[in-house]
Amino acid sequence: MRVLGIETSCDETAVAVYDSQHGLMSHQLYTQLPVHQQYGGVVPELASRDHIRKILPLTRQALKQAHSAWSDIDGIAYTAGPGLAGALLVGAVFARALGFSLNRPTLGVHHLEGHLLAPFLESTPPVPPFVALLVSGGHTQLFYVSAIGHYRLLGESLDDAAGEAFDKVAKMLGLGYPGGAALAALAEQGKPGFFTFPRPLIHRPDLNFSFSGLKTAVLQAWKKSGQTDQDKANIAYAFQEAVIDTLLIKTEKALMQMHSTRLVVAGGVGANTLLRTRLSACLEKMQGQVFYPRLEFCTDNAAMIAYAGWHYLKEGKQDADLAIRVKARWELQNG
Ligand code: KG4
Ligand code: ZN
Predict the structure, then answer these.
(1) Quick check: CB of 271 below 6 Å from ligand 1?
(2) pLDDT along the chain (335 residues), means of 10
């Protein structure tokens, strides 16, 4: 079965082709970053308009790269939420219209389920059950995955997501938007021992996170510092240590609570080198295994949507009627 995947939940237009026999056949991504950068964040209306411009040419490219004709597509999966309503609608309307004209089934996919399943595109995919740490720009969540489609939420951020905290601190230090990767790079020039930031909620038995206080602590430290380039790097270093330490402590707790030694890491912050190094060391100590998506599939992409959609379309699941539905807010939790 060959599935076309479409992702338009935020500021990336992406299209991919996944095939049950050949695996991932193509993936195309266009980032709107330059459109939004000047505003310091994503402007929803501009995002929708840009998706409209790009979705068809990108789909043509993805099909060409996969040496496929329209008629070779057996099903179409698209991100139905969570995300920006207008942006989601562009992908949903396009996918549904395509499905209608080609007489092929379509299915709306949960964006976060896409992220969680991204490591399944690698040569050694994880085998459920496992614990999953989802760390993106919008979410910081720990799940217990007993099987594909069965996600139990163990804990989540009560305020800012980890990626959001990275972005806000990066903005504060003048590193642009989104600054997670730039902040992580700057942290490498930083030295230990100059700044220490709190590890929020680590002494609580639950598996929730909180990152908004950390952002305030960083702002105060930055204001009080001499604001030299070295101060900036030292703050980036201490901030990254605090976030990664907190993620590590809670993830370790989740693994112990669930008696699991298998971990899946997904989402944009999953590209962070320090997080990967620390989690890998932790799982090695436990004689367990950790699974990551390749770097380009940590952040938003359509390969993960095509894969997640294929999983359900092959079982006959599809959009039930002709109504086009998207969900800007949508919990991923079903056992
Ligand atoms: O998963 P994603 O593309 O977006 C959502 O679906 O929310 O993740 C984007 C987030 C941004 O906040 C970005 O700053 C962060 O991931 N990010 C990083 C790194 N690369 C991307 N954060 C820390 N270190 C990185 N290397
Ligand atoms: Zn995402």
Answers:
(1) yes
(2) 98 98 98 93 96 98 98 98 98 98 98 97 97 96 97 97 96 93 98 96 94 94 96 98 98 98 97 98 97 97 98 98 95 78
Residues 84/12, Cβ–Cβ less than 8 Å = no
Q: What is the pLDDT of residue 42?
A: 94
163 lines ligand 1 (CB under 6 A): yes
- The pLDDT assigned to 307 comes to 98
For residue 86, the CA-to-ligand 2 centroid distance in Å is 16
Atom 3 in ligand 1: residue holding the nearest Cα: 299
- Closest residue by Cα to atom 24, ligand 1, is 272
Q: Is any atom of ligand 1 closer than 6 Å to the C-beta of 181?
A: yes
Distance CA 6, CA 301 (A): 8
Question: Which phi-psi region, left, alpha or beta, contains residue 169 (left: φ > 0; alpha: ψ -120 to 50)?
Answer: alpha
- Cβ of 267 closer than 6 Å to ligand 1, yes or no, is yes
Confirm if 279 and 3 have CB atoms less than 8 A apart. no
Instruction: Give pTM, 2 decimals.
Output: 0.96
Could you say which ligand is closest to the alpha carbon of residue 139?
A: 1
Domains by residue range for the chain, with CATH: 2-117+297-313 (3.30.420.40), 126-292 (3.30.420.40)
d(CA 278, CA 272): 10
pLDDT of residue 335: 54
Note the pLDDT of residue 333: 77
| Ligand 1 proximity of 300 Cβ (cutoff 6 Å) | yes
Can you say how many angstroms the Cα of residue 240 is from the centroid of all Cα atoms in its chain?
18
pLDDT at 40: 87
Residue 137 near ligand 1, beta carbon < 6 Å = yes
